[in-house]
Design goal:
Number of domains: 2
Largest sheet: 8 strands, antiparallel
Strand content: over 45%
Helix content: under 10%
CATH architecture of the largest domain: Beta Barrel
Distance between the termini: 22 Å
Structural class: mainly beta
């Protein structure tokens, strides 16, 4: 039993919304999508690809309001609202977070039965990894350059974010990330970005690549040979850039853990 574990959702501690005591936190193995291909000559099949699909967390707790059914139901409703948050933190995953959705609200059974255990079921789909709350970052300046970025974690798919701020009008920029035998490069050209106005390679709410200048998408300026995304495995990465004007640049990545 994993007692003494604390849980927060969007910064709100579960124990602070009512008389809640966590009895256990379970984390079953992640759900995987596995693609196979039958062998041509002999029996069996080969694994073509393994992809992590989702990660589940179940928090088992009890409402320790022992007398008033109305208060117990109010606590249950507060828990249901708490579950509708998006960023889970657990004390047994220090300095990490999980992007989750609720798999269902706690039922009324936990209100009527004073000995009933209440299960809070959460699932991570868009980012099915525990993620570091703070990124590792490296910076540089000039028209070209390279640096080393430590990408923490154990996952094989970790996105790198980049911000380039030109010192004068920018028309072309190429950024490259290499790690663990994987190299991803994105080249932009034909832009007209003013001095001091940043080009940002970031992520949207579904963890998809965005390339923006302010609120304006720059995706249309990508070359045909560019990578689909700046995603590489964990490890020590070499990052580099080349621009038609000098500017300042930062590369950052939040570690992701299996």
């Amino acid at each position: 039993m994993a007692r003494h574990i604390e849980a927060w959702m969007d910064g709100i501690r579960l124990a602070d919304i009512g008389a809640i005591v966590i009895d256990d936190v379970s984390e079953p193995p992640a759900d995987m999508d596995i693609a196979y291909q039958a062998r041509a000559v002999r029996g069996g099949q080969s694994v073509l690809k393994r992809r992590r699909k989702s990660l589940r967390v179940t928090i088992s707790a009890k409402i320790h309001e022992l007398y008033d059914l109305g208060k117990r139901n109010a606590i249950r409703q507060a828990i249901a609202e708490w579950c509708n948050g998006s960023i889970l933190e657990l004390s047994n995953h220090p300095d990490q977070q999980l992007h989750v959705i609720s798999k269902g609200e706690p039922g009324l059974g936990a209100v009527r039965d004073f000995n009933s255990q209440l299960d809070i079921e959460l699932e991570a789909n868009e980012i099915p990894y525990w993620e570091d709350k703070m990124p590792n970052t490296v910076t540089g300046s000039g028209t070209t350059g390279s640096a080393t970025l430590l990408i923490a974690g154990t996952a094989k798919e970790i996105p790198v974010e980049v911000t380039f701020t030109p010192g004068s009008a920018l028309a072309a920029l190429t950024v490259t990330v290499s790690c663990g035998g994987v190299t991803k490069s994105i080249a932009l050209s034909g832009m007209s970005i003013g001095s001091g106005s940043a080009v940002v390679f970031g992520r949207d709410e579904k963890d998809r690549l965005t390339i923006k200048n302010g609120s304006t998408s720059l995706m249309r300026y990508r070359s045909a040979a560019s990578a689909d995304d700046l995603i590489v495995p964990a490890g020590t990465a070499t990052v580099s850039w080349s621009a038609d004007v000098s500017g300042s640049i930062s590369f950052s990545a939040k570690g992701r853990w299996l």
